[in-house]
From TrEMBL:
It comes from Trifolium subterraneum. PANTHER family: NEMATODE RESISTANCE PROTEIN-LIKE HSPRO1. This is Hs1pro-1 C-terminal domain-containing protein. It comes from the Eukaryota. Residues 11-36 are annotated as: Disordered. Residues 16-36 have a biased composition (Low complexity).
Length: 458
């Protein structure tokens, strides 16, 4: 998502600055006074761009039609369908993207690096899809619900691999044969721990059943959305690249949203191990989104800036929201990631002190040191939640850097993105704002001070 213009008003909220007691047992008492620690305030003002801009963004990417594909249900008994389906569709869009790049007639296109980047993105997606499949197989409640077909099936209408996906076709085209075959090997390797494979034409040396890829993914319907509403009046090859890039991003953002909804349900149901697995999947998705955004660095500067003008990407004088904030689902997912901090007291099984006392910090310190053998699932979940924070802030930091490189620092400064944090740059605030988990931060700070003093307080 590349454009400019994002400014938020960042209100300050007052939080208690009381320091927690460093006590790992009821009888222990510190012999030294602890340093005071001011807990930072956390802002919560992130909003989408103006409604007309969000509508134009959705229209350009044909998101209403794409959402219908994400939300369609073919297998009511398969609980993971709302998550796996958009992930596979994002992968299929990547295959189409590879075909588009290799068909690029421009002699100045850097096809070698394009191929490497898209192959890397496809491999990262396959890795995440394999993780989702493995986690589903390990869960007794969902194991065996995936729609698959066996190679030994007597039904002659069932093939061992997809008939509609572009990947088997790319594996036979001389321009894309090497890239496609490397991707197929990635499928074979990543799906090794799973009881079935994706059915994209990979070797399948174990003879495992194949996912009914065509029925789940619906490649023909996905590829029907490859055109933009402006193809008839815009002759710019980067238009196809921008369109495909953002369709991939939006598909994975939707996957993240479904996972975050499931994480909340799992925490409420005390399924901490499952919640941890989903947290680390969300973290990997943020990293994937960062890599997908880097695709903009490969676009020809002249053609891209021309396309920006043709699409009238630039906001009005009164619009300050960055282009990424035109994605309503990105804003929603960002809020959901930040709101995971409200689950910390529930995980630690303590109540928030209405007077601002350090109950949560003390509970976290005990968990990290004295109770980690019995509460390691809690530790893992808290680590996973903080990993999401790091990956999300890294995404917005990378977004700003890509923005500056692609658009130019002068253009970025003119639209309030290249300014300093003190100047009100909200993109900078996104990755420089205080931690979303101040209680965990305080606990680790005091534990560090505790061990630095040779454990003499207990």
């Amino acid at each position: 998502m590349v454009d400019l213009h994002w400014k938020l008003n960042m209100p300050n909220s007052d939080m208690s600055s009381k320091s927690p007691k460093l006590s790992l047992s009821e009888k222990s008492s510190p012999r030294k006074s602890l340093p005071s620690l001011q807990l930072p305030s956390i802002t919560n003002d992130i909003a989408t761009a103006a409604p007309p801009l969000c509508a134009a963004y959705d229209h350009y990417l044909r998101l209403p039609e794409l959402r219908k594909l994400w939300e369609s249900t073919e297998f009511p008994n398969w609980n993971n369908e709302p998550i796996i389906k958009p992930a596979l569709q994002a992968l299929e869009i990547t295959f189409r993207f590879i075909s588009t790049v290799l068909s690029d007639p421009r002699p100045y296109a850097n096809r070698t690096e394009w191929n490497r980047r898209l192959e890397s993105i496809a491999t990262r997606q396959i890795e995440i899809i394999a993780m989702l499949c493995e986690d589903e197989e390990q869960n007794p409640e969902t194991r065996g619900t995936v729609p698959t077909a066996y190679l030994s099936s007597g039904d002659s209408k069932i093939r061992s691999y997809s008939e509609m996906s572009l990947l088997p076709i790319l594996a036979t085209w001389y321009k894309s044969k090497d890239v496609a075959q490397r991707i197929l090997l990635s499928v074979e390797c990543q799906m090794m721990r799973c009881s079935y494979t994706l059915g994209l034409g990979e070797p399948n040396l174990a003879g495992k059943p194949s996912l009914k890829y065509d029925t789940v993914c619906k490649p023909n319907e996905v590829h029907a959305l490859k055109t933009t509403p402006y193809d008839d009046r815009i002759e710019n090859y980067e238009n196809h690249a921008v369109h495909a890039t953002h369709q991939i991003v939006e598909s994975w953002i939707h996957v993240s949203r479904k996972l975050l909804e499931r994480i909340v349900e799992e925490i409420e149901g005390k399924s901490l191990e499952k919640a941890t697995e989903d947290c680390y999947t969300v973290e990997r998705i943020w990293k994937l989104l960062t890599e997908v955004e880097d695709i903009h660095l490969m676009m020809d500067p002249g053609d891209f800036l021309k396309l920006k003008n043709q699409l009238a990407m630039k906001s009005t004088h009164y619009e300050t929201a960055a282009f990424c904030m035109r994605s309503k689902e990105l804003v929603e997912v960002t809020k959901m990631c930040r709101d995971l901090r409200h689950r910390v007291p529930e995980i630690l099984e303590v109540e928030v002190d209405p007077k601002g006392g350090p109950r949560i910090q003390e509970a976290a310190m005990k968990l990290y040191v004295a109770e980690k053998m019995s509460g390691f699932e809690k530790v893992h979940l808290l680590q996973g939640m903080q990993a999401i924070e790091v990956a999300m802030k890294r995404f917005f930091y990378g977004y700003k850097q890509v923005l500056t490189v692609v658009m130019g620092s002068s253009e970025a400064n003119g639209n309030r993105v290249g300014l300093s944090c003190d100047g009100g740059d909200s993109l900078t605030h996104m990755f420089l704002e205080p931690t979303y988990f101040p209680s965990l931060d305080a606990a680790k700070t005091f534990l560090g001070y505790f061990w630095d003093n040779d454990n003499k307080w207990v």
